[in-house]
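Good morning,

Attaching, inline, the backbone tokens for the sequence recovery test we're adding to the shared suite. The designed sequence is right after.
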């Protein structure tokens, strides 16, 4: 079996290696054109700053990346778009809304779920419809539990949106102050000391429903058995709206990058940064140095990569990851992208196939540090609408698909044994499959055989829950922990920064101000956390901090990393004083 392994090597900078010294003036250099970097760039250029974005890859997007599988582009990163208001707030300064940049379908079916016993359940945009579906699925008592859960998840979100999600990183005391010491009931509603799994037991007796809603912990790379109950707010986030962008999630990144260029941001692809440069006398950033040796001066730098790699960029000696730091890592993944003919149970755009033993799955990943033998598998049918129908592709494939033209992709015939609504594709569609993995690529190199065994485990779970993917191995592209570790060095392949395990985890993510004057942090590994809209908010917080520091005193404030890490003396990476 021949399967392509995605190496994720950044493209080589073709501009040559000549040193170029530029004057800093008021230029801000942003490292990374992911969601955090593009968000910060748009905020800063709207405030009148000169912005240069340096991206290691050939295209913008960061984790919102694509791979070419079977000659077709596949989204290979995040696939769920929520919190549209975050994007609309970002774009308001330019007189735009998100749908002005990328056509959007608002999902009526949020996700479809299958279990080994043959049962299935759709979550709907209409909460009342979901309540009726839960009643049919598990009985009236469970439906009442869902209604209580939905109400409580909304309350948690409304408490944390102004005090945590959109605000600068608090500590436990300041968060309590923001919510209000005089509102003890609201503080208790957050259930900070309960795990998500245990809290779900107060709403659902049916283990399948606890499994479904416990999966929300994986949205930030965590185990539902160790993540705090506050993550139940994800249920309300999805209830507010899940969207499917035309052209996929990478199209969203391209649209934001195009807007940034139109607004005056200079975006340089294929420009990996080797060092963040500092003036040792005042512990202040002075610019960056590219892999080519080119030096670019700057008045401020916004770093948007994983903070695990920040020390290397600052010239600190590389230290092997400690056992403690490895335990704090979030999930990695195996992502399989490629054309496939889906036969069996009907797919929605987002479909989840649950394992038989959820606890054993996370025990394997987080304690035993090995791939689960029986993984839960997430499938994104990239060519399907939210409810599972064919939809037109941005590249023209499937054009005209829909109620009148669906037969271009859908046969309209039932698949034997799959129920009357199941349909088989006449030709392969683009399929994205994901299983969770340990972030251990810095101490274990996954062989092709091991990745093949994981792919087989995914296929077994899909088949046990009713789906067969007929695909060509040579057209399949796999991205495993090694691939993600190359994309984000020093992480072991962790996709979401540190895991949200325990009540203190959310308070230990770095804030927007970095360990040097003029250095700011954004991206999914810093506050407010992982996920596409959270990265957009992190860029907002970084830009706001930078602008505030300049406008209040004309000088940059110095901030320490969590845990009191001090700024090391700058050595080889120091620019001479003017």
């Amino acid at each position: 079996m021949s399967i392509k392994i995605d190496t994720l090597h950044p493209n080589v900078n073709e501009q040559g290696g000549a040193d170029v010294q530029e004057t800093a003036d008021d230029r801000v250099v942003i490292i990374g054109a992911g969601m955090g970097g593009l968000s910060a760039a748009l905020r800063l250029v709207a405030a009148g700053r000169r912005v240069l974005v340096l991206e290691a890859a050939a295209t913008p997007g960061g984790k919102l990346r694509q791979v070419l599988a079977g000659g077709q582009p596949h989204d290979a990163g995040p696939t769920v778009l929520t919190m549209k208001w975050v994007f609309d707030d970002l774009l308001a300064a330019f007189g735009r809304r998100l749908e002005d940049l990328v056509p959007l379908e608002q999902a009526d079916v949020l996700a479809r779920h299958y279990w080994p016993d043959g049962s299935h359940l759709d979550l709907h945009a209409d909460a009342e419809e979901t309540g009726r579906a839960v009643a049919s699925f598990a009985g009236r008592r469970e439906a009442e539990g869902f209604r209580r859960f939905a109400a409580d998840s909304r309350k948690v979100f409304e408490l944390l949106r102004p005090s945590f999600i959109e605000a600068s990183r608090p500590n436990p005391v300041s968060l309590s102050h923001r919510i209000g010491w005089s509102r003890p009931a609201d503080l208790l509603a957050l259930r900070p000391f309960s795990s998500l799994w245990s809290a779900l037991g107060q709403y659902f007796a049916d283990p399948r429903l606890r499994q479904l809603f416990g999966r929300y912990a994986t949205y930030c790379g965590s185990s539902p058995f160790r993540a705090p109950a506050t993550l139940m707010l994800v249920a309300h986030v999805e209830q507010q709206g899940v969207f499917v962008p035309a052209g996929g999630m990478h199209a969203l990144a391209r649209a934001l990058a195009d807007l940034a260029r139109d607004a005056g941001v200079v975006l340089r692809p294929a420009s990996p940064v080797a060092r963040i440069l500092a003036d040792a006398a005042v512990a202040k950033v002075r610019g960056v140095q590219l892999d080519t040796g080119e030096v670019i001066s700057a008045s401020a730098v916004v770093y948007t990569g994983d903070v695990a790699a920040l020390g290397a960029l600052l010239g600190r000696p590389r230290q092997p990851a400690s056992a403690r730091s490895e335990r704090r890592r979030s999930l990695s993944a195996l992502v399989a992208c490629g054309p496939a003919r889906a036969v069996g149970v009907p797919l929605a755009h987002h479909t989840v196939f649950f394992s038989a033993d959820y606890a054993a799955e996370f025990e394997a990943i987080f304690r035993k540090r090995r791939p689960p033998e029986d993984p839960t598998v997430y499938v994104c049918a990239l060519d399907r609408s939210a409810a599972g129908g064919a939809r037109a592709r941005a590249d023209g494939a499937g054009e005209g698909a829909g109620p009148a033209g669906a037969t271009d992709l859908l046969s309209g015939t039932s698949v034997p044994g799959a129920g009357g609504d199941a349909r088989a594709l006449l030709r392969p569609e683009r399929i994205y499959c994901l299983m969770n993995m340990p972030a251990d690529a810095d101490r274990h190199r996954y062989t092709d055989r091991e990745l093949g065994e994981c792919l087989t485990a995914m296929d077994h779970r899909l088949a046990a829950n009713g789906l067969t993917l007929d695909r060509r191995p040579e057209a399949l592209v796999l991205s495993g922990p090694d691939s993600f570790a190359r994309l984000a060095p020093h992480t072991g392949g962790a996709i979401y920064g540190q895991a949200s395990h325990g009540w203190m985890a959310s308070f230990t993510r770095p804030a927007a101000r970095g360990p040097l004057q003029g250095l700011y942090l954004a991206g999914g590994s810093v506050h407010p956390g992982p996920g596409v809209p959270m990265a957009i908010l992190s860029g907002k917080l970084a830009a706001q901090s930078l602008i505030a520091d300049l406008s209040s005193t004309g000088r940059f404030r110095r901030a320490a990393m969590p845990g009191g890490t001090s700024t090391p003396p700058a050595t080889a990476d120091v620019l001479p004083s003017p």
